């Protein structure tokens, strides 16, 4: 077998939170660090921005395990439901499926994208996770090809003297060498995105650092706009108050003028 530990066990094993867990803020000014901290404190799964929109008031049907894709989550729920009394299965099934979907949500969000209006940092997280998943898919395909058997050759077991069928790989020579080279390249490209320990790789750190700096600039601009808006509202209130006082003063002056 050629399977490597750098390849995820399934297509939902890497989520967007695996691509950015610490502040890439080496070049962020100390006075702006609180903006970066606030961005990192956001849970990507709680962000309102998403490419999936549900119509307000839409009543969704009860969740069923048959709606889950084949995989360990679905198998686990099906096994648990079989162990329950029949009268409890209907009520428990929806809750169990909902819990499984919430667990899968980080990976699903990396497939659907961060959504319009998300910070550049969270958008980059989604991009990196999506790229990693695509590389993992290609790696799985290459490893499957390397494991393909084209034929078998007979060899005699020196211990038993019996004939043993030895698998012969389908791809050999230059064809196999090119696939092995591609496998190594895919593994390298995956490592620079996500390290074996699950933290951002060197390429992901660079990209997330740039995205964080851009996000901080936008956050500062937004904060300044909010301050300007608050100041404008305050000044508007003062102007209106001044106009009211002036109007009252004119009315009083008019009364006094008429009494002279």
Give structural attributes.
260 residues, mainly alpha, two-stranded antiparallel sheet, 58% helix, 6% strand, disordered N terminus
Name the shape in a single word: elongated
What percent of the residues sit in helical stretches (DSSP H or I)? 55-70%
Uncertain runs are: 1-18
Mean model confidence by pLDDT: 82
Largest sheet: 2 strands, antiparallel
Alpha-beta classification: mainly alpha
Multimeric state = single chain
Strand content: 5-15%
Distance between the termini: 109 Å
User: Please, how many helices?
Assistant: 6
Number of strands: 2
Strand order of the largest sheet: 1-2
Question: How would you spell out the order of helices and strands?
Answer: HHHHEEHH
Question: Taking Cα atoms only, what radius of gyration do you get, to the nearest Å?
Answer: 31 Å
Give an overview of the whole structure.
The chain has 260 residues and is mostly helical. It has a domain at 16-51 and 113-218. The protein has helices at residues 33-41, 72-82, 86-112, 120-147, 173-191, 202-259, and strands at 149-156, 163-169. A two-stranded antiparallel ribbon has the order 1-2. Strand 1 (149-156) and strand 2 (163-169) form a beta hairpin. The chain is elongated. Mean pLDDT is 82; it is low at 1-18. Residues 1-27 are annotated as: Disordered.
List the helices and strands and how they pair.
Elements: H1 33-41, H2 72-82, H3 86-112, H4 120-147, E1 149-156, E2 163-169, H5 173-191, H6 202-259
Antiparallel strand pairs: 1-2
Helix pairs in contact: 1-6, 2-3, 3-4, 4-5, 4-6
């Amino acid at each position: 077998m050629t399977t490597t530990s750098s390849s995820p066990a399934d297509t939902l094993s890497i989520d967007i939170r695996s691509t950015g867990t610490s502040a890439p803020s080496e070049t962020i000014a100390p006075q702006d660090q609180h903006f970066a901290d606030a961005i990192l404190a956001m849970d990507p799964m709680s962000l309102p921005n998403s490419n999936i929109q549900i119509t307000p008031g839409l009543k969704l049907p009860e969740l069923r395990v048959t709606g889950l894709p084949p995989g360990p989550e679905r198998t686990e729920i099906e096994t648990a439901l079989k162990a329950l009394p029949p009268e409890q299965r209907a009520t428990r099934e929806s809750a169990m499926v909902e819990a499984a979907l919430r667990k899968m949500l980080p990976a699903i969000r990396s497939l659907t994208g961060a959504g319009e209006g998300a910070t550049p940092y969270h958008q980059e997280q989604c991009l990196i996770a999506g790229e990693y998943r695509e590389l993992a898919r290609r790696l799985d395909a290459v490893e499957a090809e390397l494991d393909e058997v084209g034929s078998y050759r007979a060899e005699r077991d020196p211990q038993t003297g019996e004939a043993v069928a030895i698998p012969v790989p389908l791809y050999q020579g230059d064809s196999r060498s090119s696939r092995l080279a591609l496998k190594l390249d895919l593994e390298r490209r995956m490592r620079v995105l996500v390290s074996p320990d699950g933290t951002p790789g060197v390429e992901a750190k660079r990209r997330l650092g740039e995205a964080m700096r851009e996000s901080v600039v936008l956050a500062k601009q937004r904060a300044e706009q909010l301050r300007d808006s608050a100041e404008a509202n305050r000044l508007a209130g003062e102007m209106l108050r001044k106009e009211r006082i002036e109007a009252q003063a004119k009315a009083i002056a008019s009364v006094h003028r008429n009494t002279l």
